[in-house]
């Protein structure tokens, strides 16, 4: 397995994984929109996508990170927004490898760190993230507005 940064040439495979990720979160499958969304992120340099590539060249997992900024720290932060490993390849530490590369991205860009959010019902993620060194924030309230 190889961990690397995605390029536009990976669009078809990343879009398939991204669509499966969305279906996992109970959204309807929409490959065309997924492909458009990923293409825009890559072409506009709005996110960084790290992929896990199997020995046969097939992409088997990805994480997508968005740059944001901390005013109080006066540094970049990376929002680890998406993490998905194809069900056939779970249990092989691929998520850990993707997260480790995300940590390298944070260090290499002199960022303040990584942040993420996951559902309380995401049992796998809520076990994984603390094992990877993430700390649950019990001091802040997170609010959202859907306009």
Topology, element by element:
Layout lengths: L1 E4 L5 H14 L6 H13 L4 E6 L5 E12 L4 E11 L8 H15 L5 E2 L7 H9 L16
Parallel strand pairs: 4-5
Antiparallel strand pairs: 1-2, 2-3, 3-4
In short:
By secondary structure, the protein is α+β, with helices and mostly antiparallel strands.
Account of the protein in words:
It is a single chain. By secondary structure, this protein is of the alpha+beta class. The chain has a single domain (2-131), classed as 3-Layer(aba) Sandwich (Aminopeptidase). The chain has helices at residues 11-24, 31-43, 94-108, 123-131, and strands at 2-5, 48-53, 59-70, 75-85, 114-115. A five-stranded mixed β-sheet has the order 1-2-3-4-5. β2 and β3 form a beta hairpin. The mean pLDDT is 95.
Order of helices and strands: EHHEEEHEH
Uncertain runs: none
State Rg: 15 Å
Largest sheet: 5 strands, mixed
Assigned CATH superfamily: Gcn5-related N-acetyltransferase (GNAT)
**The CATH architecture:** 3-Layer(aba) Sandwich
Helix content: 25-40%
| Number of strand segments | 5
Strand-pairing-aware structural class:
alpha+beta
- Alpha plus pi helix count: 4
Fold-level CATH name:
Aminopeptidase
Summary tags:
147 residues; alpha+beta; Aminopeptidase; 5-stranded mixed beta sheet; 4 helices; 24% strand; globular
């Amino acid at each position: 397995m190889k961990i690397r940064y995605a390029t536009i040439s990976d669009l078809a495979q990343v879009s398939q994984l991204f669509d499966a990720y969305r279906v996992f979160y109970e959204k309807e499958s929409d490959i065309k929109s997924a492909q458009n969304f990923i293409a825009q992120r890559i072409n506009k340099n709005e996110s960084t996508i790290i992929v896990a590539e199997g020995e046969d060249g097939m992409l088997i997992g990805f994480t997508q990170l968005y740059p944001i900024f901390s005013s109080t720290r006066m540094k970049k932060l990376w929002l680890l927004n998406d993490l998905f490993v194809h069900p056939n390849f779970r249990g092989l530490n691929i998520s850990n490898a993707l997260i480790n590369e995300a940590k390298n991205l944070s260090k290499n860009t002199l960022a303040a760190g990584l942040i993420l959010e996951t559902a309380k019902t995401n049992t796998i993620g809520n076990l994984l993230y603390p094992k990877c060194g993430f700390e649950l924030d019990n001091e802040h309230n997170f609010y959202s507005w859907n306009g």
